[in-house]
Amino acid sequence: MRFKTSGFVACALGIAATLAFPAVGNASDAQTTGTVGSPAATTTIDGRQLPSPDPAFGGVIKDDALNSQAWWAPRIVPPKGAPNILLIVTDDAGFGVPSTFGGVVPTPAMDRIANEGLRFNNVHSTALCSPSRAALITGRNHHSSGFGVISEQSTGFPGYNSIIGKDKATIGRILRDNGYSTAWFGKDHNTPAFEASQAGPFDQWPIGMGFEYFYGFVGGDANQWQPNLFRNTTQIYPFEGKPGWNLVTGMADDAIAYLHRLNQTLPDKPFLVKYAPGATHAPHHPTKEWVDKIAAMHLFDDGWNKLRDRIFENQKKLGVIPQDTQLAPWPTSVLKNWDDLTADERKLFIRQAEIFAAYAAYSDHEIGRVVQAIEDMGKLDDTLIIYINGDNGTSAEGGPLGTPNEVAFFNGINDMPVAAQMKWYDVWGTEQTYNHMSAGWSWAFNTPFSWFKQNASKLGGIGQNMAISWPARIKDKGGLREQFTHFIDIVPTILEVTGIPAPETVDGIPQAPIEGTSFAYTFDQNNAKAPSRHETQYFEMLGQWAVYNDGWLLSTEVNRAPWEAFGPANPDPLNNQTLELYNLQEDFSQSSNIADQNPDKVAQLKKLFVEEARKYQVFPMDASVAARIVAPRPNITAGRTEFVYTQPMVGLPQGDSPSLLNTSYSITAEIDVPDGGAEGMILTSGGRFAGYGFYLLKGRPVFLWNLVDLKRVKWEGQDALAPGKHTIEFDFKYEGLGAGTLAYNNMSGLGQPGVGTLKVDGKVVDTERLAHTLPMILQWDESFDIGSDTLTGVNDDDYQPPFALTATLDRLTLKVDRPTLSEADVQQLQNAQAIAVDGRPIHHLQPAPH
After folding, report:
1. Number of domains composing the chain
2. Which of 568, 599, 629 is at the close of a domain?
3. DSSP string of 492-508?
4. Closest alpha carbon to 210 in 118, 137, 109, 133
5. Please, are residues 611 and 533 in contact by the beta-carbon 8 Å criterion?
6. What's the domain range around 248?
7. Helix (H, G, I), strand (E, B) or coil at 812
8. C-alpha pair distances (Å), 77 with each of 42, 176, 331, 527
9. Measured between alpha carbons, how far is residue 524 from residues 379, 475, 714 in Å?
10. To bridge 181 with a disulfide, which of 66, 271, 310, 325 should be the other Cys (CB 3.0-4.6 Å)?
11. Which range is the signal sequence, renumbered to this chain (predicted)?
């Protein structure tokens, strides 16, 4: 059953025939309560036009009030019987993570939902964070919703600009306008990185997309000890709570408080709560209590090969995978067998896995608190809980060795030696790390599938699972559902069970059809083995792709591991591929490639993929990864070379602040030092895991670059500034060609050396050459701050935030001078790029736009 906007009403009328439980009311026929015109009256709406037009005044107006009759528009409510919705989606967790599906990580909250409802073992994501989340809230494919990649890699094409179009209203907007309370907790990775500042606009923030309340962070991940946290659009700092505060508990506390507030204010108003914890995306930040619990279980002492085997056997015993499922061989070409590791490697890797597992278990525990709060209010029977494990497969972005600092990976350092990592062993998972685990564990946690997050052609990247309960309606407790489903199916399912139609127009804008397929039919025990109604689905991410059709899966061979982000990109990702074919009805784990035996099927499915790709804005396909991170996009600094500030200001996100990477720049601060001297932060961007700071330390001017927490380079004056006015300047001359070289698929212009000079009142006080600079990104969840430092500092040895500036800042001027390519540069790069693939040049080179 494919939902189309115009056909929804007829579909809603057929709910009772589809489901074996009583249907909710139908919004196409208005249901009213009370006396219409009285303050207590309520009504449903037909939902085709949002917001619903104001009704005509139904009272009487005379010249005087005594002879007139007042009339109030009825309060809009959902159809009778529409359930509360708790939509839970965890992060970066593959099929084999939760105990609910055979994993070794205890997830009693998910177990509870599954035991009181249903397990779904054939659920599919997009292979990456915000693309999956865009599909989840819109009911449309990720490219249709502008999220072909994450916003930090967005490009100027409709399928990739990270802007959810106004013709694709979210489930929050639809339910809100139909009388629901709507809230979003945790991760928001669907606000464009270039619209995340306090300058707005806010229409792509949760509160602008129909969610009336937001408590969480904006971006792909967050330091759970010191997150860049928002309530609606206002930054929360300092954090509320005791020492040791952690966002995993903090957001559960806030969600529970919200639900109690709503229940005490208007108990009969149903809610939609999207609950999206940062777990288990890096950094893995559990509390010590949970680390100790998991460490005491010794789950990982035997290594990742045996862990994979143990999970696989558990899955068969639980019956959540077919008994004839096969495991593909361990990928020794990219990951070592456990027995081939050194003692130090094993020690470090066990610690990494314990921290990850503690994070997953901790998050599930806090989810359980939210579920329990709903039960304590007496609302559990009437609440549809959808608990999705992972927005993609387990992440391997830590590389084969893992890392104490994920920001290092995004700057091209993905093979930090174990000996170097061991100095963080005792603090792994604390506020001193931005940690990620070895990809060996990630492979095991994706059991029974292969590969990882980012790999859209492999079930290890797109194969999820979920548990759903609705005690008042779902009676097949503990049942298993094996129908093919995708994230785009969540919205039409919610619409069907609430009896609310997909709108035809929102704010006067005609709406694109819902592209997902409701799976509400599976809630009926009589349909436990019914055929899948979602018959065709494409997948594409970063140039790797697949297409599913009626049990068959055509997919590209993996040609890039997730940690290989900096090499040349496949120039023709549609055709320059080795294609594989799988019959998933007989091969649940995608382990037996039968492409050679079925050339006609391969050709048929490739044609189908192209048709789907054209339909859903997949073209132009682009296999580049790192290059897209530094590609130009329309942030509020675009085209500007000078920035002037005269007041303290904090909280400007990385995507909307001036970038000092791969460029020459100067920072000039005009300050007034009071009697007795001064110290404090003048300007900083980033934090403990990558960034820079310009500050006074015991009166002495300092400029410092924190190079992904591996090295700190400091320029420092020898004398404290005397009272009075001073001008201090840091000037940096970059020696590379900059981001312009990316037009040639060439990374050589990034992260190059440069010379920094610190001046006080025109006099040079320190100069030093940086042999390497950061090529890609600062710590993305830290902001650009003037006059103090929020969250973490760039140098713990010198100061602790907020380190407010005690001098008066009269003026701060930042100038950037980005390299441009000369004709000689272009010729040199053309020569360097004289590479052919299948006889075709990688690029037809043209001078890069400035």
Report:
1. 3
2. 629
3. HHHHHHHTPPPPSEETT
4. 137
5. no
6. 84-541
7. strand
8. 6, 9, 54, 31
9. 21, 8, 66
10. 271
11. 1-22
